[in-house]
Amino acid sequence: MSLIKEIDFGTPESKSSKLVTLTIDGQTVTVPEGTSIMRAAMEVGTEIPKLCATDSIKAFGSCRLCVIEVDGRNGTPASCTTPVAPGIAVHTQTPRLKAIRRGVMELYISDHPLDCLTCAANGDCELQDMAGAVGLRDVRYGYDGVNHVFARNNGSANFNWMPKDESNPYFTYDPSKCIVCNRCVRACEEVQGTFALTISGRGFGSRVAAGMDEAFMESECVSCGACVQACPTATLTEKSVIEIGQPEHSEITTCAYCGVGCTFKAEMRGEEVVRMVPWKDGKANHGHSCIKGRFAYGYALHRERILNPMIRDSILEPWRVVSWEEAIGFTARRFKEIQDKYGKKSVGVITSSRCTNEESYLVQKLARAGFGNNNTDTCARVCHSPTGYGLNQAFGTSAGTQDFDSVDDSDVIVVIGANPTDAHPVFGSRMKKRLREGAKLIVIDPRRIDLVRSPHIKADYHLALKPGANVAVVTAMAHVIVTEGLANEAYVRERCDWDEYQDWASFVAEERNSPEATEKLTGVPAAELRAAARLYATGGNAAIYYGLGVTEHSQGSTTVMGIANLAMATGNLGRRGVGVNPLRGQNNVQGSCDMGSFPHELPGYQHISGEKARAAFEAEWGVTLDPEPGLRINNMFDAAVDGTFKGLYVQGEDILQSDPDTKHVSAGLAAMELIVVQDLFLVETANYAHVFLPGASFLEKDGTFTNAERRVQLVRKVMSPKNGYGDWEITQLIANAMGLNWTYTHPSQIMDEIARTTPSFRGVSFDKLAEEGSVQWPCNDENPHGVPIMHINGFSRGKGKFVITEYVPTDEKTGPRFPLLLTTGRILSQYNVGAQTRRTENSNWHPEDVLEIHPHDAENRGVKDGDWVRVQSRAGDASLRARITDRVAPGVVYTTFHHPVTQANVITTDNSDWATNCPEYKVTAVQVSPSNGPTEWQQKYQELSEASRRIAGAIDAAE
Amino acid sequence: MSSHSSVDTLVKMANQIGDFFGSQKSVDRTAGIVDHIQKFWDPRMRANIIDHVAHGGAGLNPLVLEAIHRLAETTGAKASK
Lengths: 959, 81
Fold this sequence. Notes:
The complex is a heterodimer of chains A (959) and B (81). Chain A is α/β, with parallel strands linked by helices and 959 residues long. Helices cover 29% and strands 17% of the residues of chain A. In chain A, helix 9 (357-371) runs parallel beside helix 25 (727-737), helix 13 packs parallel to helix 19 and helix 22 crosses helix 24 (662-670). Chain A is globular, with a radius of gyration of 29 Å. Chain B starts with 5 loop residues before the first helix and ends in a 6-residue tail after the last helix. In chain B, helix 1 crosses helix 2 and helix 2 crosses helix 4 (62-75). With 81 residues, chain B is an all-alpha fold. The longest helix of chain B is centred in the N-terminal third of the chain and has 17 residues, at 6-22. The A-B interface holds A 345, 374-375, 503, 507, 554, 557-558, 599-600, 607, 609, 628-632, 635, 638-639, 641-642, 644, 661, 663-664, 667, 803-804, 806, 808, 874-876, 909-912, 914-917 and B 1-2, 4, 6, 9, 13, 16-17, 19-20, 23-25, 36, 38-45.
C-alpha cells in the first residue's frame, strides 16, 4: 500500500448543470459553468502552479502563481479566480508566465527559511514543490534585510520575527515559515466555521493570528485541524509529524468516535501512526475532521491500556494475569456452570456501539445461538432506542431519512435536543455553512447552545423549553400547523393513513394543546412558538435534526413520533433538504442496532417472534432459537437484584459509568457471579468484573461501522493488535470454548453471513464497500448501491402513521427539596465516558466536569464561580465545581459525564422511556448547595476503584 | 431514593405504557398494551406482572389491569382472578 494522495483541483466543484467547452493548451475541455480555469485544467491533468488555492475553500487569487494567458484577452489573470467561458483558448505555460511565476517564487523564498533538510514538511511542502515546478534557481534579493525568518538580524533583535507557538498539544504554528496565503484563515471560516483565525497587520506586516493575537490554545480555536491540513508549508504542522517524520503508506479507515462517521487516511510509517488526515472522498465528512478523530487516537498506546487477560474469583481479590487459554477456558466454564445452576436465561451479553458491526453481530449470536436465550442488549438502549421504536412506528424503518449532504438543500433547519457543534462537530460545521448561506434556524433546547449565537450564525428562534416538556412543545407546533391551515394535506392524503391523520389533527387542534395553553409548563412564549411553527411549515425545505435531548426522556419515543408527525403533516420527507434526522451518539450506534443487539429483534430489525426471520437464522446457525424477547440492560440489573440473572459478557461498554442511577447498577453488578469485561482499559464496570479480556482499538482490526446516515463504511487494520486479538476473534474464542465451532478467519466472512440472513444488508460485502467507498442501507437487489434518501415514493411500512402524542409529565418534578432541573450533555473535546479521550491531550480542554448554573440560582445559594457544590437528587449526590453562566436558564443546571470521579450518574434516576426503557438522563430534580469537596460516596467509590484495580505482580500487567 | 423492587418497576413501566396507548384513538386500547408487553418484555417480567395482578395488581391503572388480564389469558398462564 502506498501513500494515498487525493487530487487537489484548486477550487471547489461547480454544481451547475450547464456545460462549457474551451481549450487549454490545445486540449478541448468540457466542464460545468462556473468552474475555474485552474480546475478545468486539472480535470485534464494539467496542474497549474498554485499556492493560495486548494479545493476545499473558495478561490482567493492572492499568490499570483497560477497566472495564465487567454487568447484575445489582456494581461495574465489568475486561473483560480477566472471562470471558464465558451470557446476561449487558454495557455498555461508561456515565456511571459514562466518569468512571472519565477519572479513570484523568488520573492516568496527571499522571506522564507532555507532549512528544507531539517524541516518537518520536507517531502510534503507545496512551497518546495512550486519552487521546483517554476524552475527557481536563484534568489537575487538575498536573505538579508527586513525579514520574518531570523530571530536576530546582524546581532540585534528582529521584531518582525515571531517565536513558534507550541501551545496546542497537537500542532505547532511557526510564523517564520508562513507565506500568508490565507488558506488556514479561510479553512477556519469556510470549512470549520469557527472564525478563530485572521490576518493581523497589513502589507509586509501581515501575520496569521489566532483570536485576538493570542496563543492558539488561548484563542477560540477548536483544534479541528482544518488549518493544519490547508497549510502548504510547515507553518502549521502536526507535532506527531515533527516527532516521527513523513508517512510512507496509508489506509482509508473510519473514525471510532461519534456517529458522523468521518473517514480518515491513517498515514503510517510501518506500524506507527504518523497522523490521521480526513479523507477528501469520505461521503460523511468530505475531508473535514474534529479534534477527536483528527488528533485523539493516542489512547491506543496509553500506558493504562491492559494487554493481557486477567481473572479473579471475587472482586475483592486483586487481578491475576493469565494466558488467553486460561481466561477463555475460565469464562466458558463459568458461563456453563451458571446456566446449569440457574437456568438457560440466567446469563446475557451487552454489545458495543464502539465495536464493529461484525463484532456486535457475533456477540448477539453468542447469546442467541450459544447461550440459547435472547438476553442481548446494547448501549444504544441508553441513547437512541426511542429513535428505533418511534421511527419504525411512523415510517417503518428504524433510522434517519437523509444523508448528511441533504442539509445543503435545506431552507429551514430545526435542531431539537442536540448540540451538533460539540457532539457531532463535523456535521455541525456543514450545518453552519448552510446557515451562513441563508438557511433559517430554529433551536429547541433548554440551554443556549453555540448554534443559537456564534460568529455569523444566529438562530431565528430559540425555544428555551423546560427540560421534560418536549412532547408539549412538539404538539403545540403541530397545533399551530393544523389550526392555521399550514398542513400539506395533499401529501398526507397520498402518503399517510388519512383516518389516523384526522384523529391526530383533531387531537392536536384541541385548545389544551395550543402554545398559549402550554406556555406555563413549557416555558416557551406562545408567540415565539407560533412563529417557529409557521417558519417550519412554510419556509421551504425544512429538516429536523435531533439528538439525545429528545430520546433520553420518559416520553422519548413519543417525542420521536411527534417529530415524525410534524414532518409528515408538512410533507417534509422523501427529498433532499428535508427529513427526520437523528444524530447518533457513538460511531456504531446505528450499526449495533442494525446487527440485532436488541433482545426483541434479530439483525435487520426482524422481530424474534417472526417465524420466517427465525428460520433464516436457524438454518444459518444450525440451532433452534428462543422466540421470546430477552432482557434489556435495565431489566438485567433488576433481574440480577432479584437473583435470576447471574452472568454477563460486556464488550466495549462502560455500563457503570454511562448508565443512570449508578447505585442501582452497582447493586446489580455486585449481585452477579460472573462479569466478563472486554475493553481497552480497566473501565469502571471492570471494578465489578471477574474476567478482563483486553480489547483491540479500531486501528487494530478490520470491520465496518454504520453512521447516523445508515452509511456502512470499512474500518481497516493498520497495525497488529497489541493485545493479540481483534475483538471479533475474542468472541469467537469464547464461542468455540463453549462448543460452537465458529470458523471465521476474517470479518468479511461475518459480513457475508449478515448479508445472507438480513434482507436490508443483502447487497453488502467488503468488496463492494472497498469499491464504492460506502453504501447506505437498505442495500439489496432493488437498491444495489444503497439508498441516500428514504421514503421517496412512499413509506417502508406503506402508509405513514400519525400517532397521538399526549403529554405525560415525568415523575421527576421540582419541589421544595429539589427545586432545580439537572440536564446532562457532552463537550467537544471529550467523548462520552471519556475512557478514550481522557487518555489523550484532549483533557487540556476539559480536565473536569463542571456544573453550569445560572447567576440567579448561584447567588441564592451563595455559590461563586469555581466553588465546590454538592448536587443532590432522590437517587444520590455528587460534588463538582460550579461554573456560573447564563447559557442555562434560571431553574436549570447542566453538567457533562466524561469523568468517573464526578459520577454524574449517581444523581440521575431510574426513570425511563415508556416504550424502550431508554433512561431519562435529561431531567433530574436536584438541589445544589455549597460543599467542601467530594461527597462520601465519591470518596468511597474512589477507594473501591483503587482496591478493585489491583493487579497481582503488577509489573508484568502494567507494561 | 426511588424503589427498586422489580415489581414496583414493572408496575411503573406498565402504567407508562398504559398512558401512551390509553391516549390513542384506536378502538381497542388494551390490545396495544398487550401487544407492546408481548413484543418487548422478557417472559419472566411478564410472569411477574401477571403474578402481581393475580395478587390484586396494586398500583396498576384500570386499563393496564385489564390488559394484563388479557395478557394472562393469551399466554395461557394462570392468573387467578
